[in-house]
Design brief:
Layout (H helix, E strand, L loop, with lengths): L2 H13 L2 H29 L16 E6 L3 H6 L1 H10 L4 E6 L1 H4 L10 E4 L10 H22 L5 E7 L6 H9 L4 E7 L3 H10 L5 E5 L5 H6 L20 H15 L5 E6 L11 H14 L4 E6 L2
Parallel strand pairs: 1-2, 1-4, 2-3, 4-5, 5-6, 7-8
Helix pairs in contact: 2-7, 2-8, 6-7
Length: 304
């Protein structure tokens, strides 16, 4: 569904009285994502999550799994989450499953014990015929992983948003980990999203919904509200080795030279179209920077 049409639909539903708005939302969601809802219901019944209102109702977890099959940018947004999760459980074993492309930025993360990679498609709407194959793939992966690391997970966190129609590999891995406690999040800023969440909530022990728009990092950290921990300074992090820092400085110094040039790093393409800026906008920014800067400018194009 095109973004403009989807936004118009959201606005129209929100203008209706609650009863017809909810009825139409369920109808639309059922027509578009019926197969996905059936799969979530299957996972919820086959691998039920333990229902407790807070961490006070369970023993402190010894083995924690985090699943986030997203791109590099999403992983960087999640770095404060790793920090506060470690502060909450300083003695626990904390493992992470990510896509191979994202693992490189976390290889020196001090808050994680083990980082495992899982090859998964991203930002796609899976077809019903593909679910069986994807389910079996995730099941075999988790079986092999737990045989290898001997870890019986007590708790699993999913910092990624849970949608209908995409990202089901995250749900599969969380379910097949057989962790009794599952924590996740989604959006709930309009009637359609709130109705959608009703199908997702039963899968989780604790499920937080974003009711007002806010920074992605803060959205992710809302999952930790269940732990009742205080959060102070919040910042994203990148853990580089001394050799990596030295290589970067050497590379940049070659461009700066004696004329003290400005180096602008530019990432032209996001993981999806709605996260990518138009090239014409970049060109306008480059023109203005060149016009008003008294120093030479070099543009460093980043390609993930």
């Amino acid at each position: 569904m095109k973004s403009k049409i989807r936004r118009l639909l959201f606005d129209t539903l929100d203008l209706l009285p609650s009863t017809p708005a909810r009825f139409l939302s369920k109808l639309l969601i059922g027509l578009q994502y019926g197969y996905f809802i059936k799969e979530i219901m299957y996972l919820t019944q086959k691998y039920p999550a333990k229902k407790v209102s807070s961490m006070k109702g369970i023993e402190s977890p010894q083995n924690i799994l985090v699943v986030r099959l997203d791109a590099i940018g999403d992983i960087v947004w999640t770095t404060p989450f790793f920090e506060y999760l470690r502060k909450a459980f300083p003695e626990a074993n904390i493992d992470l499953i990510v896509r191979p492309v994202a693992a490189t930025v976390l290889q020196n993360c001090p808050y994680l014990n083990n980082i495992y990679t899982y090859d998964s498609k991203i930002n796609c709407v899976e077809q019903e015929k593909d679910l069986k194959v994807m389910r079996e793939k995730a099941y075999i992966y988790m079986q092999n992983l737990q045989k290898t690391n001997k870890a019986k997970y007590d708790c699993v966190f999913m910092p990624c948003e849970v949608f209908l129609g995409s990202g089901i590999s995250n749900l599969y891995l969380a379910a097949f980990s057989q962790a009794p406690i599952r924590i996740g999040r989604s959006y709930g800023t309009n009637i359609l999203e709130k109705t959608r969440s009703e199908y997702i909530k039963p899968f989780f022990t604790y499920f937080t919904e974003m009711t007002i728009p806010q920074n992605e990092v803060l959205q992710i950290l809302e999952e930790l509200n269940w732990l009742n921990i205080e959060k102070g300074d919040i910042h994203t992090q990148l853990w580089l080795t001394d050799q990596e820092r030295e290589n970067a400085h050497d590379f940049l110094d070659d461009y700066k030279g004696e004329n003290n040039a400005i180096i602008v790093a530019v990432a032209l393409q996001g993981s999806s179209k709605n996260r990518s800026w138009m090239f014409s906008n970049y060109i306008e920014v480059f023109k203005k920077l060149n016009k008003y800067s008294s120093r030479p400018i070099y543009y460093l194009l980043l390609d993930a």
